[in-house]
Design goal:
Strand content of chain A: over 45%
CATH class of chain B: Alpha Beta
Radius of gyration of chain B: 20 Å
Shape of chain A: globular
Largest sheet of chain A: 6 strands, mixed
Helix content of chain A: under 10%
Distance between the termini of chain B: 27 Å
Oligomer: heterodimer
Number of strands of chain A: 10
Order of helices and strands of chain B: EHEHEHEHHHEEEHHEHEHHHHEE
Helix content of chain B: 25-40%
Structural class of chain A: mainly beta
Order of helices and strands of chain A: EEEEEEEEEE
CATH topology of chain B: Peroxisomal Thiolase, Chain A, domain 1
Shape of chain B: globular
């Protein structure tokens, strides 16, 4: 099997792929990016917190124009994962308003997004309709 | 708080649209000279200049304007606050006058954007032998389009759809009707980039950019500039009767940024900072939304206009859909919104927008808006949002009895 790495630092691969946030130990605010301090309380201590892999679509759009290399149309959404909002694409669904609904339950899935010239696969995530 | 009242003494916007023969400096100078003439003063009177230009063309824009229009050695502030850049320039000039440091101030915003295409869209993955992590997410490639969208039509589509999810009642057709209103309004505005009415069918049938925003539901990239001259209340008293009559009182001048809330770093929250700015502005001005005769709000996309009815408290919380359906925000309604045609039809030369919307309100308060005049307008509000985020709100009042 090819060597696989996560597309972004906050995606954990393995048997149970999930997202991990930097959670402020002071106020509980969660962030996905590298932090200097907390935007909520200015605290500087963070711990890693696993984010729920199931959630509901709290808003979405279907984007028809994108940078080169991105297939269109694609569905962009914010998914509410037990109180933590996640920016993602909705995948494995037809990109039309008939098939993507506000409030729709979805779950995290992973897929190979790119391969470099050494054969290393970058695995990214999306959310798909939950059965 | 300072003790000085601040007034708009002169203001101008250029024709918005394509200006292939005019560069950024020409447009900024045209608006500046016209605003000074409208005010009945000259560059020699100005105590401060604040100016902004986001997409390049001329930097530092404030000094470049001086080099064309009058180098008097005054302090020059070059400001940048995304789509709120013009309002930020005005706010800087107002603060100087309010603090008593200047009698007169000049604010200018200018942009050359015709044909610019989609804004806010990043590039693709850099080619390389091996993956390398970069950026704050430690990504091995671009995240835009791969992990949600960062483009402006998509971002603001999600802002509108979030409102639709929270309160119900909003759908593609309703958002398109908002756009139909603004395109209809623009037919009376000779300075608008687009002045043709569009039917609902045309709007809904146009190219889909980011559902539910089709092309005419997106702000129109165009060229344009706007400039304003402000003056202190005590100085105004020494000027002519005509200058005093046409002066517009800045009853409130507010700028806010986005406070922390869950999700605000995942999808920009344009609601809370607008609501905060509106509360402050109404309190400063001593008026409420019910006192406003017209509103120019930041309809960068049709989906954005809906949420700002609510954020500016023009309706009950959650009541934006009913507010629109009541006919209130149409030019013959009880609370006309974007009678200029808004950003969707008048156009959106980014850094100019936050002064151009004030020009529109002043035009009505002075009774000089011609065929699109809102009769008897005495109080108006101008609102802009710059993503990431800044919100500027100015409440303006007629100075004539």
């Amino acid at each position: 099997m090819a060597n696989q790495i996560p597309y972004v630092d906050y995606l954990v691969l393995g048997d149970d792929p999930h997202l991990v946030a930097n959670e402020c130990t002071g106020c509980g605010a969660r962030f996905f990016d590298r932090r200097n301090a907390c935007g909520g309380c200015s605290g500087t201590e963070f711990k890693k917190a696993d984010v729920a892999t199931q959630g509901t679509v709290k808003t979405f759009t279907i984007v028809s124009f994108a940078p080169p290399g991105v297939d269109v149309p694609f569905v962009s959404a914010i998914v509410d994962c037990d109180g933590t909002s996640v920016r993602t694409n909705i995948v494995n669904v037809e990109a039309s308003p008939e098939h993507v609904k506000l409030g729709m339950p979805v779950k995290l899935t992973t897929f190979v997004a790119a391969t470099d010239e050494k054969g290393t696969e970058a695995v990214s995530f999306g959310f798909e309709p939950a059965a | 708080m300072g003790s000085e009242d601040v007034y708009i003494l002169g203001i101008n916007m250029t024709k918005f649209g394509k200006h292939p023969d005019l560069d950024t400096v020409d447009l900024a100078s045209e608006a500046t000279l016209a605003a000074l003439k409208d005010a009945g003063v000259t560059m020699k009177d100005m105590g401060i200049i604040a100016a902004g230009n986001l997409m390049g063309g001329a930097a530092p824009i404030a000094q470049i304007i001086q080099k064309q229009c009058g180098q008097t050695g005054i302090p020059a502030y070059n400001v940048s606050n995304a789509c709120a850049t013009g309002a930020t320039a005005l706010r800087v000039a107002c603060m100087s006058v309010k603090a008593g440091e200047s009698d007169f101030g000049l604010a200018v915003g200018v942009e050359k954007l015709a044909g610019a295409g989609l804004l806010g869209t990043g590039g693709g993955r850099k080619k390389g032998d091996e993956f390398e992590r970069s950026g704050r997410f430690g990504a091995v490639g671009s995240v835009d389009g791969r992990i949600g969208t960062e483009n402006m039509p998509g971002t603001f589509a999600q802002v509108g759809m979030e409102y639709a999810h929270r309160y119900g009642g909003a759908n593609f057709e309703l958002f398109a009707q908002i756009s139909e209103k603004n395109h209809m309004h623009s037919t009376l505005n000779p300075l608008a980039a687009y002045t043709k009415a569009m039917t609902l069918e045309q709007i809904m049938g146009d190219i889909m950019i980011a559902y539910p925003n089709t092309r005419p539901m997106c702000s129109a990239n165009c060229d344009g500039a706007a400039a304003a001259v402000v003056v202190s209340g005590s100085k105004l008293k020494t000027l002519s009767q005509e200058q005093q009559r046409r002066a517009i009182r800045i009853a409130a001048s507010v700028l806010t940024s986005d406070p922390y809330e869950e999700a605000c770093q995942v999808l920009p929250n344009v609601n809370t900072l607008t609501r905060n700015a509106a509360k402050q502005a109404y309190e400063q001005a001593g008026v409420g939304p019910e006192d406003l005769n017209l509103v120019e709000l930041h309809d960068c996309f049709a989906t954005a206009e809906l949420v700002h009815y609510d954020n500016l408290m023009l309706c009950e919380e959650g009541g934006a859909v009913d507010f629109f359906k009541s006919g209130a925000p149409f030019r013959d309604g009880s609370k006309p919104v974007n009678v200029s045609g808004g950003l969707q039809s008048k156009g959106h030369p980014i850094a100019a927008t936050g002064i151009a919307n004030i020009w529109e309100v002043c035009h009505h308060l002075r009774g000089e808006a011609g065929p699109r005049q809102i009769e008897g307008a005495k109080v108006g509000l101008a609102h802009v949002i710059g993503l990431a985020s800044a919100c500027g709100i100015h409440i303006l009042e007629s100075n004539s009895a």
